Amino acid sequence: MRSPKLAALELRRFGRGKLPRAALVAILLLPLLYGALYLWSFWDPYGRLDRIPVALVNDDRGATVDGKKVNAGDDITEGLRESAVFDWHEVSDAEAREGVEDGTYYLSLTMPADFSARISSSSGDSPETGALEVRTNDANNYIVGQISRSVFSEVRTAASTKSSRSFLDKIFISFSDIHDATEKAAKGANDLKDGVGKAKKGSDDLVDGVGKTKNGSSGLATGLKKIDSGASELVTGTREIAKGTQQLADRVNGAAAQARPYLRDNGKKIGDTARLVSDTSKAAQHNLDRIVERGPAARTAAHVSADRLTAAHTKYCEKGEGLVDPTPEVCEGLKDAKVAAADVAVIADDLAEIAEDSGGDLKKLDAQLKDLQKKADDLAKRAPHLTSDVDYAVSKINELNTGAQKVATGMSELHKGITKSKNGAVSLDSALGRIKKGATDLSGGLYQLKGGSKELASGLDKGVEQIPDYGKEDRERRTEVMADPVKLASQSLHKAANYGTGFAPYFIPLSLWVGAMVAYMLIQPMNRRALAAGASAWRIAFAGWLPVAAIGLLQVAALMSVLHWGLGLEMARASGTVAFLALVTGCFAAIIQWLNARFGAAGRILVLAVLMLQLTSAGGTYPVQTSPGFFNAIHPYLPMTYVVEALRRLITGGGTGPVWQACAVLAAFTVGALALTALSARRKQVWTFDRLHPELSL
Predict the structure, then answer these.
(1) Domains in the chain and their CATH numbers?
(2) Rg of the chain over all Cα atoms, to the nearest angstrom
(3) Sign, CA torsion 362/364/365/369
(4) Cα separation of 677 and 696, whole Å?
(5) Mind listing the pLDDT tens digit for each residue in 523-580?
(6) Residues near 10 by Cβ (< 8 Å), separated by ≥ 6?
């Protein structure tokens, strides 16, 4: 026979009778029930956190900041009640602690008495961080402790300032920057005050220097005026000399041919004329000596004035030393004076050069005048004897005339240069007068500027003292407090070491239930021989229960040994845990025995169904309050609920009230299950056709 036909025959067997059909339906629905129950139980636990009872303690006394009352505790309490994150219960601190300890509340949130004062201290000298005190108990539920950390982080954020840390840090850095900048400004103002003082002194020196230069230029102008006057007289004298020599030459040359016959008769006149020439040459030589004598001094004075003006213009206008923002008029006047003084110096150089006669003209002129005087004197002496010297005298007179003409021409050019120097010196003196007035005005303005800069420096120094300057550590401390003024101070009454420890109370009873379930797949729930012999129902019940209970004790020993020495599970009450698990495995064995004894093969399916109901309603992971109402309804009536609660206290720690309650409940379940098994045994002692030929067997 082929495999498909064999499969069809096997499935056709479930079509005979009601129980096989029900078993087939159960097989089909078992995965659905398993998956649906689990997903339904854990569908939206975070959406039902408002069913979890949490103690809320508001001990905050409030605070007064800048005349304004601050009640941060009341504000947070009102906000929490409006948000309804948990099922808040306002109680005292003692009630909260006791409630978290005995499981009345899963956790508590406390706002201490100085909460408002602490979070309001951020603007004071000693900023402090406020603390929300969270108290949990992993012996109630491990997951709730994890949930609370997330939820209360949001509560803390809501209670904290909305200002970010980086913004506050920039504020305090800006305080320091403002302080530093103001301090630099104050230093700059002090430097300005010192600089203005130096500029004031420089301007005073400028006034003195310009005054001295003005005096020198006035002296130069006066001296050049005198030189110009003397040069004018000298020009007149040289012209007269040139005119006289020309007349003399004309006469001598005109009368030369006739002179010889008449020299003896005109000797006296010739002598007188020669003496006149000698006297005139002497006067011209005297004026020329004055030019030679005063020319170098005039050149020196002109150069000194020019150098002073050039140095003043370079220092105060080009380099900007000593003056703060010199006025354009002062610099322009200095520049004009410098140029004029330079021109005067050039002219004075020309005059001195002429006076020193490096080219030889003036010296030649002086020599010629001396020679003319000497020759005129000789002529006067020799006039009575000119007869023999006529030819010689004529030649000398012509030479004298030529020299006199050159002297007249040179003196005319010299007079023009001296006149130009005089005009430049007068212009220089006038410009220096204007510069002196501007420098005096500048000195007065700098005096006022010095007083204002002193007041500015004083005000900035006072401002620096009033601006706070936070150091790095102080700034970081204030930033930490103001950016995060509320901290969470968590306290766990009985903290689980890790997830394994937190979930052990859930998985241990699961493993013991599965162990008993598998044991009754191998061991008959009721001994058939005892049933056939008509033994006592209680004896039959105990005979089927004791072997699995004994195996359960071995399972407990093996399981706890591996968990403790293999995985490192630490128990607050190790011996109590093992003893309690002995009761648990006996209770589970009794329940599974009754289900198998009463319902036969279908009982095995019911065992799985009861396991699924217990796992989804025991609150082993999330609090049962976060599950739908169905699971909350069956929660108190299933044994694993009490096993989980008791194991949490035995493993993690805490009060033993739930342990004793669980012992009583499990004992009741055990006795009840054994009684029901005994009742089933009594019924099984009556043989029926269905027992001889059951519709369903596994």
Answers:
(1) 31-41+498-692 (no CATH), 46-161+484-492 (3.40.1710.10), 218-428 (no CATH)
(2) 66
(3) positive
(4) 20
(5) 888 877 777 667 788 888 888 899 999 999 999 999 999 989 988 888 989 999 999 9
(6) none
